[in-house]
Amino acid sequence: MAFARTCSVALVGVEGVVVEVQADLEPGVAAFALVGLPDKSLVESRDRVRAAVANSGVGWPQKKLTVGLSPASVPKGGSGFDLAVACAVLGAAERIDPRQIADLMMIGELGLDGRVRPVRGVLPAVLAAAEAGYRQVVVPERTAAEASLVPGVSVLGVRSLRQLIAVLSDEPVPDEAEDQDDGRPDPMLAGLTVPGAGMGIGTLPGLDAGHAPDLADVAGQHTARTALEVAAAGGHHLFLKGPPGAGKTMLAERLPGILPPLTQEGALEVTAVHSVAGLLPPGKPLVDSVPYCAPHHSATMPSLVGGGNGIPRPGAVSLAHRGVLFLDEAPEFSGRVLDALRQPLESGHVVVARSAGVVRLPARFLLVLAANPCPCGRHSLRGGCECSPTAVRRYLARLSGPLMDRVDLRVNVEAVSRSELVGAGAVGESTEVVAARVRAARDRAATRLVGTPWRINSEVPGHELRTRWHLAPGAMREAELDMERGLLTARGLDRVLRVAWTLADLAGRDSPAAEDVVCALELRTGVPRGAVMAGGRQ
Fold first, then answer.
1. Of the candidates 420, 8, 71, which has an alpha carbon nearest to the alpha carbon of residue 221?
2. Which stretches does UniProt call biased (Acidic residues) (predicted)?
3. Given CB 3.0 to 4.6 Å as the disulfide criterion, which of 2, 203, 422, 507 pairs with 92?
4. What is the pLDDT of residue 473?
5. Distance CA 450, CA 428 (A)
6. Using CA of residue 205, residue 258, residue 286, residue 455, what is the dihedral sign?
7. Cα–Cα distance for residue pair 158/141, rounded to 1 Å
8. Are 29 and 105 in contact (CB under 8 A)?
């Protein structure tokens, strides 16, 4: 009996499970059995591996072959096991030394000609390998840069099975010619992207080229600009209501620009999600820009929160992780789809249960909702609206109370006047100026929260805010009165307190004053209370 083993990774959502690939050769009628709960695409690897080995100049063993994927209870799918299966077979056939591959982690698809094709999810797979103690991984050459993002792991990128056999056998490595660049799409990269999956997802156009939308482009809208700054500084969710053309989408598109840049840890998390979803930009293994996701209002439940056939895949809430999820025309979304956001808004992750398994996907995003005041959009304008009061109430009631209770800031975006649009002084503060204030406010919050698991005000539980960091006596009087009147829930009171802390951080105060609480109430209810807005604006 001849036996060899090596390792690969099975992805469950964006988390990896180390899989031991074992090959056993025994005398008998030539056959190839693959066991260990493989899916259809993995079962087909038997034909791909056999052809790749034969076309690499290595004889296929004419014996009874059994390849096992352990643990057998974990569902396994995709073509990323091909390379490990081929090497395990060659190790059992003693074409390569089994000891050379026992501690190697291998990820890659094999073409029939022996070329190693890239697959999605290399970064989370290598992260799982590193956490399991593996220090050497073999990946397709096209994804070697992505795998190299994981510290402490030695990465070998190969173009073909022939090259890998030569490396493992200490033989001269053959020079595999690259495909000629004739202007056509590279077929080797076809498996890294999902056609149509990137609509409304990713980073804003021009962001990487230094042409990101500037907040100075927004005319007027002082209250909405303040709310945008508060949302960025404290991580608070935002609701913008106003007529068409008032600037709601413009404001939302400029929110990523004033958010602090991703940390190294955050960039790896975002890249892992985008890698699994097949949305990594070509030639850019690391996503270091704040994600921005704006799905259409016809989005289904799986496309928004994750799901699909077989193992659930990331949805828009996960693709917006560490970034912004913008739902324009929010009342036009399905009520069930909107209410599905309630769990990730509270927990920062989404749990999707399917018959094939349960996955936990990261989903800590900043939600921005935008809506017209009525079905025709002209309710807040002078004349022109023919919607009945019942139609207006029914339209806005599509945003459920439990969902809106989780939104900290609610702003009425009024139509821009002629003087604000073309008059002198119409240009507001730039993104650079506002982003500097946001970074300073976040630094103050991080200093205050040092030694805790939280970094921004929206993450701090209400009980901790009320008991650990005290306000001045009487500062919460207005908010407490609103709660007694039934205008605020207990969750709403905590969220007002969080916004008040963010306003204090923006103003450079050590703790919120009474005017900060009043301003937070105004931003939450949309009812003017004569508060002085952040940055000294009325």
1. 420
2. 172-181
3. 2
4. 83
5. 34
6. negative
7. 5
8. no
DSSP secondary structure code for residue 174 in this structure: P
Q: In what order do the strands lie in the sheet with 324-327?
A: 292-293, 324-327, 366-371, 238-241, 409-412
The widest CA-to-CA distance across the chain, in whole angstroms, is 89
Joined together, the tokens standing for residue 392 give 């207006």
SS3 94: coil
CB 495 within 8 A of CB 234: no
CB atoms within 10 A of CB 136: 13
Residue 338: which of 387, 388, 377, 295 has the closest Cα?
295
Q: Report yes or no on whether pTM surpasses 0.85.
A: yes
Torsion of CA 189, 105, 164, 141, to 10 degrees: 30
Q: For residue 483, what are the contacts with CB-CB under 8 A and spacing of at least 6? A: 489, 490, 492, 493
Average pLDDT on 29-57 reads: 93
Amino acid at 110: L
How far apart CA 462 and CA 454 sit, in angstroms, is 12
Structure tokens, 137 = 């991984």
Q: Please compute the mean of the pLDDT values over residues 461-485 and round it to a whole number.
A: 87
Q: Which residue has the tokens 């207005």?
A: 478
Instruction: Look at residue 488 in the predicted model and tell me its pLDDT.
Output: 87
| Per-residue tokens: 485 | 């009147």
Least confident of 6-20, 180-194, 223-237, 452-466: 180-194
pLDDT at 185: 58
Instruction: Let me know the angle formed at the C-alpha of 392 by 389 and 393, rounded to the nearest 5 degrees.
Output: 85
The conformation of residue 176, written as its DSSP 8-state character, comes to P
Single-letter residue type at 318 = S
Secondary-structure breakdown of the chain: helix, strand, coil percentages, each rounded to the nearest 5: 40, 15, 45
Task: Give the side-chain half-sphere CA count within 13 A for 298.
Answer: 1
In this structure, which amino acid lies at residue 27? Answer: P
* pLDDT confidence bin for 353, thresholds 50/70/90: confident
| Banded pLDDT at 195 (limits 50, 70, 90) | low
Is pLDDT above 60 for 200? no
Instruction: Say if CB 226 and CB 534 are below 8 A apart.
Output: yes
3-state secondary structure 8-51: EEEEECCEEEEEEEEEEEECCCCEEEEECCECHHHHCHHHHHHH
Can you tell me which residue has the tokens 């009996």?
Answer: 1
Q: What's the alpha-carbon Rg for the chain, to the nearest Å? A: 28
Mean pLDDT of 416-440: 81
Q: Is the pLDDT of residue 537 over 50?
A: no
CA atoms within 13 A on the CB side of 316: 27
State residue 518 phi and psi, 5-degree precision: -65, -40
Nearest to 121 by CA among 67, 191, 183, 179: 191
**What sign does the CA torsion over 30, 34, 39, 42 have?**
negative
Backbone phi, psi, residue 87, to 5°: -70, -35
- Provide the token pair at 316: 């828009």
Q: Do residues 50 and 60 lie in contact, with contact meaning Cβ atoms separated by under 8 Å?
A: yes
